[in-house]
Amino acid sequence: xxxxxxxxxxxxxxxxxxxxxxxxxxxxxxxxxxxxxxxxxxxxxxxxxxxxxxxxxxxxxxxxxxxxxxxxxxxxxxxxxxxxxxxxxxxxxxxxxxxxxxxxxxxxxxxxxxxxxxxxxxxxxxxxxxxxxxxxxxxxxxxxxxxxxxxxxxxxxxxx
Length: 160
Prior knowledge:
mainly alpha
């Protein structure tokens, strides 16, 4: 059975949101306990902002992944499979960051993870842009937010 582009996009969005929800479990357990004890920079966003931002980013990621999935299955672009493998790698690293920073309560593990995540996102963007430029551009807000999160992670590590 051949899936239409909208169906692929919906499936990809759901997968991304489920991964995000899974990561939020580790985050929520420490957000009101351990995280409150940390020194944070004055520019640390309020906790309520992270949910809407991540939800938006996961939706954009799902749209991008759906577009690439479609290029690979319906249009036969052989570059789609390696691009989707990189997408899966960065998605797993995204999930692992929540468990390394919040679950393990370790800013240093979080920093190591988020730097590797940033590189994986960049590779994914480049691979997606080569196949379908719009898909690559949809991931730009994501890498910008992860860049901000990396600086925040470094600041928290430094202050504690």
